[in-house]
């Protein structure tokens, strides 16, 4: 707890000015449910009272104006699905003031389909109707537009104004149902200037999440920080626009009201492989992306949970870049620029000083959600300390209530048993030795296994071959 005392002390002079209504917008990448043990994330791990808004990603679009579910097994309850939408929205029972939204788009969706839909008034109107129906059907509080990006990546110049028409039509219909309309947008001037009519979009969106990260990465030939707060003195030209302060002031100067501007912060770092391990500062030559992490498994990026676990293993040198106000680290030929508790504390002070709407984080499942390096959710808690003035206590998890039955129809139920203490031999999933429908998830935390118990739905058994529930007749030994 001593660290949090220091955090609060550093923020004491700002506490009186802090807006208690600051937003903390938590994006959830639903594909993280497929990651390996240790990084595999379940919706139940979310502490919803740490977020004022939670956004589930992603759904897609069709050229006919339909909203497409991209992972029906994970998102929906049909055909033994995992009902991700339902479980995500059920988290509001723990934190009723938290709002949930569904996001459409993302980098992998590209731009061409969005450009085609919004350019046709008839299809655009159909899409707006479909969005309203989709949001209401699945019980979300709102909709987040993450078109990456109008007039780029397969788009066309008229996207800029067609995007405004889309937002206007969505907002008109949303207001009839009390729904929220938000957007995730490119932050830096070189990209944002191609895509957005900022005064017009600000009129129709409840708030705007600027993605002030990925400002440098392995697509470049030299090391650069993922999300530097300020520029360095040795930078010039376009690089002077690739920092958080330049991004924020571009949006403010172009007419976005500060209270609608929500600053995106990354809970991950951008990594590189150094060309020469002895040249390891900012601007050092590189040969490509850094080695993929064990959980995210993507070259050129590391979740904060991966970074902090690497540091525990030793051998890394951490450097705090005073001009960028953010750290980077290197070990051998591996280099990563990232955010931590200290840099995010400074970013919350920055948000407060400019009267911005709050912070958005990408994304919740790459924080240290298990607390393997200390407390659970250290970065998310830092945002709460700086923007809300306190760290909400984790609410108790709700217990499942048995269905109501008449006395004559009740049947004896077996007692609820704790997971066996000797079930875990390594990280990962283990099936119960007596009941194929029961399985456990083992986490090795500082040499001691934490065990979580799960039950497959009726008629299913845990299948070690797929690390998931399967029909019993397909699982050897469970017929």
List the helices and strands and how they pair.
Elements lengths: L1 H9 L1 H4 L7 E7 L23 E9 L5 E3 L2 H4 L8 H7 L8 E7 L6 H8 L1 H17 L4 E5 L12 H19 L2 E7 L2 H7 L2 H7 L2 E5 L32 H10 L7 E6 L1 E7 L11 E4 L11 E3 H10 L3 E5 L4 E6 L2 E4 L3 H14 L3 E5 L15 H11 L39 E4 L6 E8 L2 E8 L4 E4 L4 E4 L8
Parallel strand pairs: 1-2, 1-15, 2-4, 4-5, 5-6, 6-7, 7-8, 8-15
Antiparallel strand pairs: 2-3, 9-10, 9-11, 9-14, 12-13, 13-14, 16-17, 17-18, 19-20
Order the strands across the largest sheet as they lie in space.
Answer: 1-2-4-5-6-7-8-15
Beta percentage is: 15-25%
| Secondary-structure-derived class | alpha/beta
Helix content range of the residues, please? 25-40%
Contiguous helical run count: 13
Describe the structure.
With 479 residues, the protein is of the alpha/beta class. Helix content is 27%, strand content 23%. The chain is built from 13 helices and 20 strands. The protein has helices at 2-10, 12-15, 72-75, 84-90, 112-119, 121-137, 159-177, 189-195, 198-204, 244-253, 304-313, 341-354, 378-388, and strands spanning 23-29, 53-61, 67-69, 99-105, 142-146, 180-186, 207-211, 261-266, 268-274, 286-289, 301-303, 317-321, 326-331, 334-337, 358-362, 428-431, 438-445, 448-455, 460-463, 468-471. An eight-stranded parallel β-barrel has the order 1-2-4-5-6-7-8-15, surrounded by six helices. Strands 9, 10, 11, 12, 13 and 14 form a six-stranded antiparallel β-sheet that branches. Helix 6 packs parallel to helix 7 and helix 12 runs parallel beside helix 13. The longest helix has 19 residues, at 159-177. The protein is globular, with a radius of gyration of 23 Å.
């Amino acid at each position: 707890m001593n660290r949090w005392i220091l955090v609060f002390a550093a923020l004491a002079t700002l506490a009186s000015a802090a807006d208690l209504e600051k937003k903390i917008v938590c994006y959830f990448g639903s594909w993280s449910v497929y990651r390996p043990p240790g990084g595999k994330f379940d919706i139940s791990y979310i502490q919803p009272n740490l977020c004022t808004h939670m956004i589930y990603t992603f759904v897609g679009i069709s050229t006919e104006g339909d909203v497409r579910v991209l992972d029906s097994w994970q998102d929906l309850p049909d055909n033994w699905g995992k009902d991700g939408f339902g479980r995500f929205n059920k988290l509001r029972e723990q934190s009723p003031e938290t709002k949930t939204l569904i996001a459409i788009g993302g980098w992998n969706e590209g731009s061409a389909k969005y450009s085609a839909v919004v350019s046709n008034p008839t299809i655009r109107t159909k899409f707006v109707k479909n969005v309203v129906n989709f949001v209401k059907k699945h019980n979300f509080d709102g909709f987040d537009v993450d078109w990456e990006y109008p007039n780029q990546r397969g788009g066309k110049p008229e996207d800029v104004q067609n995007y405004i028409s889309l937002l206007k039509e969505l907002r008109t219909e949303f207001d009839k149902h009390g729904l929220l309309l938000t957007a995730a947008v490119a932050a830096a001037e070189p990209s944002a200037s191609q895509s957005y009519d900022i005064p017009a979009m600000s009129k129709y969106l409840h708030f705007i999440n600027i993605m002030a990260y990925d400002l440098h990465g392995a697509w470049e030939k030299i090391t650069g920080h993922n999300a530097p707060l300020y520029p360095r003195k040795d930078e010039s030209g376009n690089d002077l626009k690739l920092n958080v302060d330049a991004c924020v002031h571009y949006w403010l100067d172009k007419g976005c009201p500060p209270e609608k501007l929500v600053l995106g912060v990354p809970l991950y770092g951008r990594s590189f492989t150094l060309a020469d391990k002895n040249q390891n500062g900012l601007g050092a030559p590189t040969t490509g992306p850094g080695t993929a992490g064990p959980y995210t498994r993507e070259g050129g990026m590391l979740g904060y949970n991966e970074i902090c676990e690497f540091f525990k293993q030793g051998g890394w040198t951490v450097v705090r870049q005073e001009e960028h106000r953010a750290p980077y680290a290197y070990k051998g030929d591996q280099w990563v620029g990232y955010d931590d508790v200290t840099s995010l504390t400074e970013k919350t002070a920055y948000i407060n000083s400019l009267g911005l709407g709050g912070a958005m984080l990408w994304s919740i499942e790459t924080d240290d959600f298990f607390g393997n390096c200390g407390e659970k959710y250290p970065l998310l808690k830092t945002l709460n300390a700086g923007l809300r003035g306190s760290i909400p206590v984790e609410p108790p998890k709700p217990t499942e209530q048995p269905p109501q039955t008449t006395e004559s129809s009740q049947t004896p139920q077996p007692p609820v048993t704790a997971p066996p203490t000797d079930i875990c031999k390594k990280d990962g999933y283990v099936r119960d030795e007596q009941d194929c429908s029961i399985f456990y998830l083992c986490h090795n935390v500082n040499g001691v296994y934490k065990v979580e118990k799960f039950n497959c739905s009726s008629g299913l058994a845990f299948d070690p071959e797929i690390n998931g529930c399967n029909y019993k007749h397909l699982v050897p030994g469970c017929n």
